[in-house]
Amino acid sequence: MPEQRLRIAIQKKGRLSDDTVKLLKACGVKVNLNTQRLIAHSENMPIDILRVRDDDIPGLVMDGVVDLGFIGQNVLEEESMMRKVANEPTSHKVVKELAFGDCRFSIAVDNDFDYQGVQSLANLRIATTYVHILKRFMEEANVPYTSCMLTGSVEVAPRAGLADAICDLVSTGATLEANGLKEVEVIYRSTAVLMQRDEPLTGEKQELVDRILTRIDGVQTAKESKYIMLNAPKSNLKAISDLLPGSDLPTVMELAGSTDHVALHVVSKENLFWETMEQLKALGASSILVLPIEKMME
Ligand SMILES: Nc1ncnc2c1ncn2[C@@H]1O[C@H](COP(=O)(O)OP(=O)(O)OP(=O)(O)O)[C@@H](O)[C@H]1O
Ligand SMILES: O=P(O)(O)OC[C@H]1O[C@H](OP(=O)(O)OP(=O)(O)O)[C@H](O)[C@@H]1O
Ligand SMILES: [Mg+2]
């Protein structure tokens, strides 16, 4: 009898862990992750969560060991390229782009390096974790170089005399700055994604995946959306509605005891900036409230 529980691989500890766990929780998947166990069973859904190093996640999905995996595109791309070279299975589907894990994969050199463009990297030794993505970029640029594979502390390689340049993940740039390095080429942009194994799942499992995907949409849209409430003079209702960003039809309600003002409620796909609030106020709006939305289903 086939395994009916959906198996999902997530990063055990690192940059993606908290956001992944938060997202699963927001999707209503109840699971106790306070233990050190490799596999955690959901209490309310037929789901098992496998907690592993992120590097192992694409392979687990591609080999059909798990059904879904939450992973950074950079790791997925690197593993796919590595497996192609090794003639190993690479098939999978990316079923959702996620609103976390945004970073770029960039080449950086010492602050005092006189960088004149990609040719300045010729014949340098470049330290990186993601050797295949770097190789593709350097080959396309037709620049010869030597690769130095490091699985951690890449940013200290130049100072330690291990390499002349690095290629690593950058988000705020603080790590580069702290190590006296400057970003000179962005070679890949990444975000977290949800990947699924390519072979069809059983009907029940696929139904569960579809439910999770709908819930992820609901959580992600809700996060970007705001519930806006304000009181508005009837005379300026049109001008005030027009100022509200990306909103659907507003709800207009009578205000007890007022004949010339109404309450206006609207779900907006964007945040409301202070500048817009000031404009709304200038049009006579008052008691303007902007509230976060937890979940949404359209
Ligand atoms: N500074 C960052 N900001 C946002 N996302 C990042 C950042 N750094 C890395 N990421 C994303 O998070 C993923 C995991 O990063 P992390 O540093 O936790 O990896 P790791 O050290 O390889 O972890 P593991 O121990 O699981 O192998 C990266 O592959 C990338 O997709
Ligand atoms: O541009 P920044 O905002 O400084 O982020 C970049 C750093 O973040 C990641 O490491 P992380 O902090 O996840 O730890 P790691 O050393 O375990 O990879 C990445 O490998 C960089 O070192
Ligand atoms: Mg890793």
Automatic annotation (TrEMBL):
Its EC number is 2.4.2.17. This is ATP phosphoribosyltransferase. Pathway: Amino-acid biosynthesis; L-histidine biosynthesis; L-histidine from 5-phospho-alpha-D-ribose 1-diphosphate: step 1/9. CDD domains: PBP2_HisGL2 (cd13592). Belongs to the ATP phosphoribosyltransferase family. Long subfamily. It comes from Psychromonas aquatilis. Residues 222-295 form the Histidine biosynthesis HisG C-terminal domain. Its cofactor is Mg(2+). The gene is hisG. It catalyses: 1-(5-phospho-beta-D-ribosyl)-ATP + diphosphate = 5-phospho-alpha-D-ribose 1-diphosphate + ATP.
